[in-house]
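Example record used in the benchmark description.
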Amino acid sequence: MTDQLSGLWLSAGMAVAAGLVGCFAVMRRMSLASDALSHVALPGIGVALAFHVHPVIGAVAALLLGTLLVWGLERRTGISTETVVGVVFSLALAIGTLLATGEELVDALLGSPGTLGPWEVGLGLAGAATVAIFVMVERHRLVISLVSADIARTTGVPVARLELLFLISFSLTVALGLRYLGVLLMGSLVIIPAATAKNVARSLGQMLAIAVAVAVTSTLVGELIAFRALRPPGPVIITVAASLFLASLPLRRAR
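Model output (structure tokens):
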């Protein structure tokens, strides 16, 4: 029972982080790029498995390295984030497929919750709290930099550093959910709740709150349904999230 409760706390924390980060990913028009960026974890998982290291460690290392690569290329070349992420994603997917095979690849792609160790729960909750604090503290600066990077700079906002910290927060959020959703579906949990919130929210505060509520509800309800139906939780969680998004469409038209 204690292990299940710890898992629920961790999945809820992951969902909170996903909802908050997803709002700014949607506003940055990173919907497709966000899903692709989650695949960067795949080669890290493959390397970790090859050297008998915990796959989460490899995933985090690969995501952070990929984030720095995306940020650096974007800053130096001026190419859009979506294009850079697309190139990095293709390379990561190819390398990851070569390194991980069979059941290991399926688990990496779709997630494999298993039994969580105390250190995983502790680090996961700490990571989720870090992401949530960053987004809530920097939300106004993030909005200003989205509206105009030049205006943000004139008001003293360190745009380049802020963009890097946002990408790192996104990568950390993806890493938090890899055990539940895998690299194929984690990006969806970041984007779908935020897209749902955008349909019905009338302010930034409402959008953040609704996105978190949708992400947490989708995760907990999805896990409950999956447990009773003896199904993997990842696809069920995303199905619940997508259903809530579809339900929000009439409200969007009514606005």
